[in-house]
Amino acid sequence: MAAEWQGMGAAELGRGIEAGRICPLALTEMFLDAAENHPHGGRIYARLMRRQALDAAVGARGRARSGLRRGPLDGVPVSWKDLFDTAGVATEAGSALLKGRVPARDALVIERLAAAGLPPLGKTHMTELAFSGLGLNPVTATPPWRHDPGHVPGGSSSGAGASVALGLAPLAIGSDTGGSVRVPAAWNDLVGLKTSAGRIPLAGAVPLAARFDTIGPLARTVEDAALAFALLDGSPAPDLRGASLQGCRFLVLETVAMEALEETPARGFETALEALARAGAVIERGAVPPVAEALALSGALYAPECYGTWAEAIEARPEVMFPPVLARFRSGREAAAHDYVAAWLRLDALRMAYGAAVAGYDAVLLPSVPIMPPSIAAVEADHALFAERNLMCLRNTRIANLMGLCALTLPSGTPGAGISLMAPPMNEARLLRLGAAAEAALAA
Are 108 and 119 in contact (CB under 8 A)? Predict the structure, then answer.
């Protein structure tokens, strides 16, 4: 039974609990034991929360027996990226700078999922302070890629992705500032949702760049992601019933996003497009010039904000950081305030131009990540390679953050390659409905 549960999605497990076929306590114990006994469990979980998880599972069991479940995911365990504060449990954001940091209260999103009855399995490893997309972290641990443990898994929500991909959690919560949910989701054949900036409250989440930081789920299915999104957002679950691609208009973004694709992501994307077209979608291709200019501005936006957020802590002990991540932060310290303000003013104009250019489409499509995961040994040993591969893996995902969009990555059907759908801000329910229809088409 344990092996069967490990392969099931969160919604499916919830239905099993509702029907009385699955005991929440037994389910939670199974995932905790699986994490403790997995050969790479220590590379995935920074710390388990056994007592808290079992206490929550006991409550969920009682509600299930009494017919008083709080919702479809009541009793379904979840893993948390190690930048969400947990009362009395260390939250270190993958950094030696925060070693031993123990918050006094839970992050707001943790409170919301706890109130919905989801047992917290534990805190998953991540890249240092969330400022890398590869998932490499020599300071704490580098989780394994599902297809080869010798390769990086994608980050910065690296352990979050690995926990779901390797059956050590049915659902994970991560953050996405430039692709940190979508890169590990894409490389690990998962569904990953980047929510709109400002949609889900960041209270109690360790910051990186507050104007870009977002919170979102990594899951096995769009249904799972939709149910998790509703809990994080405090809103009704999106209605996915009857979702169809018939007559939907999609734009394949040919500006920058299709350049220098490696063979596997390119093949996966084109195969996925064919499946969407067979399901009735109208697919067009075109350039959207504001995207290229926005990407060129990104260095003037991200690095100064990230360094400004962390400069005091970094410069007190720079020697404890992985040098390429330290260099990435420090690249923002010489930025002039007027250049930063001017870059934001220009980005606001580019966002308006982008919105006007794509207004006639239901979603914009692009390969989630243009490259495949490099080996851990290669990027750990060669810092120039780390910097180059890191920027490349985040190139496509960063478009949604810069343009202020919500975005969803789905498995393309080609292992390690994802296809992303981008929609206007605050349109998550519509995006998830499109995603459910696309998911069905890709599985056909």
Answer: no
In the beta sheet, which residues pair with residue 123?
47, 80
Measured in whole angstroms, how far is the alpha carbon of residue 80 from the centre of its chain?
A: 11
- Nearest Cα neighbor of 16 from 60, 53, 48 is 60
pLDDT in the model for residue 3: 78
- Answer for the pair 98, 108: CB distance below 8 angstroms, yes or no: no
Return phi, psi of residue 161, to 5°: -65, -45
The 10 Å Cβ neighbour count of residue 62 is 13
Residue 401 · residue 411 · CB < 8 Å: no
Q: What count of other Cβ atoms lies within 10 Å of the Cβ of residue 250?
A: 22
DSSP assigned state of 362: S
Contact 155, 127 (CB under 8 A): yes
pLDDT tens for each residue of 7-51:
999 999 999 999 999 999 999 999 999 999 999 999 999 999 999
Distances (CA, A) of 403 to 55, 380, 396: 42, 31, 12
Q: Are 365 and 253 in contact (CB under 8 A)?
A: yes
CA–CA distance, 20 with 339 (Å, rounded to integer) = 60
Secondary structure of residue 29 in the 3-state scheme = helix
How far is Cα 245 from Cα 31, in angstroms, rounded to an integer?
36
The rounded distance, in Å, linking the Cα atoms of 61 and 272 is: 41
Query: How far, in whole angstroms, is CA 214 from its chain's centroid?
Result: 9
In sequence order, which ranges of 67-213 are alpha helices (DSSP H)?
108-115, 158-165, 182-187
Q: Which value, in Å, is the radius of gyration of the alpha carbons in the chain?
A: 20
Residue 305: phi and psi, rounded to 5, are -70, -40
CA distances, 174 to each of 29, 116, 216, 259, 277 (Å): 22, 18, 6, 28, 31
The model's pTM is: 0.98
**CA separation (Å) from 389 to 298, 380, 384, 386?**
16, 11, 9, 5
Q: d(Cα 353, Cα 403) in Å, to the nearest integer?
A: 10
Cβ pair 182, 176 in contact under 8 A: yes
Catalytic residues: 81, 156, 180
User: Is it the case that residue 1 has pLDDT exceeding 70?
Assistant: no
Residue 239 neighbours by CB distance under 10 Å: 12
Name, in order, each residue with C-beta under 8 angstroms of 405's C-beta and a sequence gap of 6 or more. Answer: 194, 196, 399, 422, 423, 424, 425
